[in-house]
Amino acid sequence: MINKYRFFVCASIMLLLLFFASCRSARYLEEGQALVTDVDITGVPPDIKERAAAYISNEIKPNSRLNLTIYNFFNTRKGKYKQENRRNVGEPPHVLDSSLVELSAQQINRYLQTKGYFNAFVTPQVDVKKKRAHIDFHVSLGKPFLFGHIRYRADDPAIEDIYVQEVRPKSLAKTGKQFDSADLLDEREKLYEKLKERGYYDYVRQYMRVGIDTNTVSKQADLQVEIQDPTDSTRHAVYQIDSVFVKVILPYGQTSTRDPHSVVDTNLRITYNDETGRFRLKPLSRYMYLLPDMRYDLKKENQSYDRLYEMNGFRNVKINHRKTGNNRLNTFYELTPRPVMANQVEGEFTFSSGMSGFNVGNTFSHRNVFGGAEQLEVKMRYGVLFDPRLEGSLANKIFNNDFQVGVNLIIPRLMIPFENSSTGTYGLPRTTFSSTLQFFQQDQTYSNRYFTNSLNYIWYTSPRSQHSLTPVSVEYRVGRLDEAFQRQLEDEGYLLYVRSNNREYFGLSAQYNYTYNATKLLTKENFNYFRVGLESSGNVLGVLSDVLKLKTSTEGERLLFGVPYLQFAKTEIDYRWYRHLGGNKQFVLRFNGGVAVPYGNNSQLLIFEKSFFGGGMNGIRAWQARTLGPGNYNRADLPERLRLNLRNLDQLGELKLEANAEYRFRMLNNFLGAKLNGATFVDAGNIWLLRDNEITTNGTFKADEFLSQIALGTGFGVRLDMDYFIIRLDAGLKLKDPQFAQGEQWVIKELFNSREFKQNYYQTHRPDRYNFIQYNFSVGLPF
Q: What is the Cα–Cα distance from 611 to 566, expressed in whole angstroms?
């Protein structure tokens, strides 16, 4: 029993030791002290309870058991805490402090009043036993107050009109709704933004005051909103922009060798001074939305900040204003550039299908190639993957080599031959020219050479909508199979695979992607996310081949420059439903589907670069990437050598259906300096072929069978949130595996007979092994 469940036994023992070690912390305290082990708030609904808990002092909240155990290890001696030379490791014990208890009760009471519970009482109750303290903040809420009559008055009729027409109708504070001070703060903020956008440069939030009367009607809070003038004799003024000055300055500590001078752009009426001598005014002024003779507008000022930072050429942007009299402003843009050139070296270890390897890369960047913050990137990457199943020394265990070099030129505007309305209002438009050269070789199997050139446009039509269009992508590929491997494939009847991979081709494709709400993915809100991608290759060439009577090969493929060209159409949809459940709890539903249809020159089989795969860290996590499907396909039908050499390449599909459900929650607020989050999930789906081929059996999509071919997995994950990035470890457990016959797909029933099950599987699938649990380590959320 112990041998079979060794992992679970060891993990349980470690957790118990950790628990008892932290519980013994109370014995290290002095007489009269008590360790806070439990804090609770009773008498309130769950949603209010979670938010009210934030007002309890952190110094009287229970310690993290792990951090407290670490602290005890380094700071105790002879059964007591050290009085001197304490090490700042872990977390010191949170000792009961009556003053902090009373302060926390007051803070909770004030919070409840902001939610309309003006008659609430908070009574702290402390129970101390054996130097351990339990604190219960007992709340008597009473009935909440509702918004009553709402009256308003503004000293300035113009401002009152803006308030009545644009702010009040959208206010969250409505008569009959439960009182919430957050609604009033939101209304004040909206008025501030509207007036700042209308030129009221001097307006501040404090000019709006709200009087609350709770004595007129029982359980009702009447409001009196007043918007005051600066003084009794002056009105709020609307300001115009007079002159605009732009200055590009050197970073702190650097001095310029150029003589100070300014240039006046007569078309824009901008005085421009570039101490660095590297930037042109016209590309920068495109995203300076405050210009001479315009009314001051806070919204345009914020847009200027956003777009100038997004150009990636400036480390600091400042926009200041100076009054010149007669309600006019001079506007000053001050830009501090980033270093012109940068170099970044990256490296990572990879684990895939029982193999391991590494990737190293280098990226050289020039951030201002033509004087308009255009960015040039030169990237080089080399990766190698080792297969421990291969015989010989380490050099002989190299499974594949991958070398790539690419050049990207990113221009911060849309370079198109006609007028366009994309001025960067909602996001910085970009034009990217890319070229990539790749050399890939897999041991004793095949090698590929790729050369790709593309033109891409990105623009925004709303704060939530992003468009990406690649009108032209030119690709040239030469694929060669290893001669011995090719002969083996031919002998065993896999001619289709030989024809698909032992070839060269030319591709001329176009792509379009639309994304909705991508900026909200890391927020705790209720929202929907949507992405759709379309790709097509060979349509134009297909028409030209008919018109120009292009040559065809002996196999009937149409040729361009003596090379067959790709023909396929592909689409993919990703929809997600996010719901915030309060605090740090979130529930996510996701559907991901796609179809790729090969035709013409590719009518028999889609090239694997454009195919779908199942499993992986961002899909069905109980399976490794490219080890699921298609359909009921089982690799036991392959000869052993082909199972080794065809790793992943025979488990591709042209149709994908996938669904995920994930519940996310906070585990520890402070774990080794970061936040520790947890997640439970259920993943379902598979991939299929659209038509039978001679490589894969039982993999074709059939409407009356596909539901029985759905794979199902579940699992648990932990995420270390470092604010700037998230480190994720997910453990997926297989529940239903479609590679087996109908009555044997629920593999979860074999979990406690796993040794015998795995041995039998290995005998029929050598060298593949079966794992019930799949670990996925990565950076970032799965979706």
A: 13
DSSP letters along 224-235, please? EEEE--SSSS-P
Position 395, amino acid? A
Are 538 and 565 in contact by the 8 Å Cβ rule? The answer is yes
Q: What is the maximum span of the chain, computed from C-alpha positions, in angstroms?
A: 98
pLDDT higher than 80, residue 630: yes
- Pinpoint the alpha helices (H) of 268-369: 281-285, 298-310
Partners of residue 222 on adjacent β-strands: 213
Cβ neighbors of 422 (< 8 A, separation 6 or more) are: 414, 429, 459, 460, 461
For the ranges 318-322, 517-521, 596-600, 759-763, the one whose mean pLDDT is highest: 318-322
Decide: 747 and 738 in contact? Cβ < 8 Å. no
Does the pLDDT at position 90 exceed 70?
no
- Express as a percent the part of the chain with pLDDT over 90: 52
Q: Mean pLDDT highest for which of 252-266, 284-298, 491-505, 751-765?
A: 284-298
Other CB atoms within 10 A of residue 637 CB: 12
Burial letters 758-774, b for 16+ CB under 10 A, else e: eeebeeebeebebbbeb
pLDDT exceeds 70 at position 469:
yes
Report d(CA 111, CA 106) in Å as an integer.
Answer: 9
Distance in angstroms (rounded) separating the CA atoms of residues 399 and 385: 5
The residue count for the chain: 783
CA distance 485 to 487: 5
Checking if the pLDDT of 181 tops 80, the result is yes
* Residue 46, token pair as written in the block: 């769950």
Please calculate the CA angle 394-396-401 and round it to the nearest 5 degrees: 95
Q: Give Cα separations from 30 to 83, 570, 633 (angstroms).
A: 11, 71, 67
Tell me if residue 526 falls in helix, strand or coil: coil
Average pLDDT over residues 417-431: 83
The rounded distance, in Å, linking the Cα atoms of 73 and 113 is 43
**310: its two tokens:** 């997004």
Integer Cα distance of 352 and 624 in angstroms: 7
For tokens 């041998």, the residue is 3
Spatial CB neighbours of 124, under 8 Å, sequence gap ≥ 6: 101, 102, 104, 105, 135, 136, 137, 138
Residues 6+ apart with CB under 8 A from 518: 466, 529, 531
Query: What is residue 161's three-state secondary structure?
Result: helix
Give the C-alpha separation, 219 to 179, whole Å: 10
What would the two tokens of residue 706 be? Answer: 């596909």
Q: Which alpha helices (H) appear in 439-482, and where do they start and end?
A: none
The residue among 315, 285, 288 whose CA lies nearest residue 302 is 288
Band of residue 441 on the pLDDT scale cut at 50, 70, 90: confident
Report, as an integer, the average pLDDT of 758-774.
89
- Arithmetic mean of pLDDT, 192-206: 95
pLDDT at 420 over 80: no
Closest to 647 in 3D by CA, of 663, 624, 673: 624
Q: Quote the CA–CA distance of 504 and 478 in Å, as a whole number.
A: 4
Long-range contacts of 590-594 (CB under 8 A, 24+ apart): 590/658, 590/659, 590/660, 590/661, 590/662, 590/783, 591/658, 591/659, 592/619, 592/656, 592/658, 592/659, 592/660, 592/685, 593/656, 593/657, 593/658, 594/533, 594/570, 594/655, 594/656
pLDDT of residue 581 exceeding 60: yes
Structure tokens at 499: 């024809």
Domains of the chain from N-terminus onward: 4-140 (3.10.20.310), 146-227 (3.10.20.310), 240-337 (3.10.20.310), 635-782 (no CATH)
* CA–CA gap between residue 209 and residue 192 (Å, rounded): 12
Q: What percentage of residues in the chain have a pLDDT greater than 70?
A: 89
How many C-beta atoms lie closer than 10 Å to residue 37's C-beta?
Answer: 20
Distances (CA, A) of 667 to 63, 371, 615, 664, 677: 13, 49, 27, 10, 5
CA angle (710, 716, 722) in 5-degree steps: 125
Tell me 165's DSSP state: I
